[in-house]
Amino acid sequence: MVSPVRGALAARFALGYSPAVITPIVAIDGPAGAGKSTVARQLARRLGFTMIDTGAIYRSVALAARRGGVAWDDDAGLGKLLDGGLGLVFREERVILRDHDVTEAIRTPEISRGASVVSARPVVRERLLGLQRELGLSAARGAVLEGRDIGTIVFPEAQVKFFLTASDEARAQRRYAELSEKGIAVNLTDVLADQRSRDKDDSERTIAPLRAAPDAIRVDTTGIDLDTVVERCFQEASARLQQLRQA
Ligand code: DC
Questions:
Q1: What is the spatial distance between Cα 106 and Cα 175, in angstroms, rounded to a whole number?
Q2: Quick one: 74 exposed, middle or buried, by C-beta within 10 A (0-12, 13-18, 19+)?
Q3: Atom of ligand 1 lying closest to residue 119 CA
Q4: Orientation angle between helical segments 4-14 and 122-137, nearest 10 degrees
Q5: 107 lines ligand 1 (CB under 6 A)
Q6: What architecture is domain 24-246?
Q7: Is 151 in the pocket of ligand 1 (CB under 6 A)?
Q8: Which residue puts its alpha carbon closest to atom 1 of ligand 1?
Q9: What is the reported pTM?
Q10: Per residue in 71-112, pLDDT tens?
């Protein structure tokens, strides 16, 4: 069977494109709260690329399962749910699942836990791999994908890879501020405990655990203003993409 990525690449070669003009991919991986979303969004904007939040895809699976009465660890049920396609569309900064705007609904602490559970199921990861690759390769000018395994599994051939980290406390503080700003009532201690438990699950699972790719640029964002991080990533990414264009 031809994988979706091979299929997409083959189609481009058939159209006469050379490998040098294949959609540029920037991978941003790291644990929750390291600033990935903000950095990915702003970096994509500055590069003129499409931003793809892959965590939102796993969150949407958790929400679709909850709404469909499928347990988060029911592999057969999850497989069936995904067989018909997830029905997920990113429209501007909104996430639309089966014609419903779920942008806020996928951000609750309950769905965060569900996303962590479903993301450890091989049946889910396998089915979402092709979708993530297609979203990346079909971006008009290039794509910035943020997640946990973009530089290692989804796009090991990405032209630019960043791995963002920060201390536990700094990450929990950011997540807390983000949730409070959205009007979601939480307390910092719970956010920190929840984050530690999800970090443990995400890095200890056997399939696609959270790991930095060997060729990723590591950025510790503890105590650094995210605008400064964006500027640094932008400089690095532009320089690398420029080099590749000239190669
Ligand atoms: O980044 P986030 O918190 O929105 O991600 C939600 C969950 O999905 C989190 O538990 C990690 C998981 N995830 C993953 O396993 N692989 C990805 N590429 C993105 C997210």
A1: 14
A2: middle
A3: 15
A4: 20
A5: no
A6: 3-Layer(aba) Sandwich (3.40)
A7: no
A8: 55
A9: 0.87
A10: 999 999 999 999 988 999 988 889 999 999 999 999 988 998
Residue 243: both structure tokens together = 């080099």
CB burial readout 180-203, b (16+ within 10 A) else e: eeeeeeeeeeebbebbeebbebbe
**Nearest CA, atom 16, ligand 1:** 148
Ligand 1 pocket check for 121: Cβ under 6 Å: no
pLDDT > 50? residue 166: yes
The amino acid at 231:
E
Query: What separation in Å is there between the alpha carbon of 58 and the centre of ligand 1?
Result: 6
Q: What is the DSSP string of 98-120?
A: TTEE-TTGGGSHHHHHHHHHHTT
Please indicate whether residue 155, judged by its CB atom, sits closer than 6 Å to ligand 1: no
